[in-house]
Amino acid sequence: MHTCVSDLMLLKNNFCLIQTIFLIAVLRARFCNARYSNIIKRAQLVHSSSEGSITDIAGILVGQSSKSERATGCTVILCNTTCVGGVDVRGSAPGTRETDLLDPINTVNIVNAIVLAGGSVFGLDAASGVVRCLVEKNIGFQTPRRRVPIVPAAVLNDLNVGDDPFIVPDAN
């Protein structure tokens, strides 16, 4: 098998594992499609056509955006109402953001969105774009002064796939 193909298959398997860990943690949600209709501006909204999809859960929307220049991108899972999440981070060099917020002993016990991206540590910036959109909609955990969007994120290292490792998911 060609090295690039085997690398892509390994990345796909690892990414599916990361997605499964995050998605199993979503415990409760309600549907309110209009609230998030404009959040994923250039992403393709995924609608389930078969049973057993994460989008079968009321209140869960999934958007995906890929870079046309290289095989990388990000997936955003939006929770239309309060969702409780959890995470199990593993690996020798995990790339995560805000996953410690999901510990049940911490103050914050909700998730507004989850970002899964390529691009290694550089892909974590994709979560900043989701946070920016949620801030514009005044969505997030209420603090005394303002709402703070809770957007845990995880990335995988796909920098060795394709021609240009400088093309990575970003906040735009």
TrEMBL record:
<dbReference type="GO" id="GO:0004177">
    <property type="term" value="F:aminopeptidase activity"/>
</dbReference>
<protein>
    <submittedName>
        <fullName>Uncharacterized protein</fullName>
    </submittedName>
</protein>
<comment type="similarity">
    <text>Belongs to the peptidase S58 family.</text>
</comment>
<dbReference type="InterPro" id="IPR016117">
    <property type="entry name" value="ArgJ-like_dom_sf"/>
</dbReference>
<dbReference type="Pfam" id="PF03576">
    <property type="entry name" value="Peptidase_S58"/>
</dbReference>
<dbReference type="InterPro" id="IPR005321">
    <property type="entry name" value="Peptidase_S58_DmpA"/>
</dbReference>
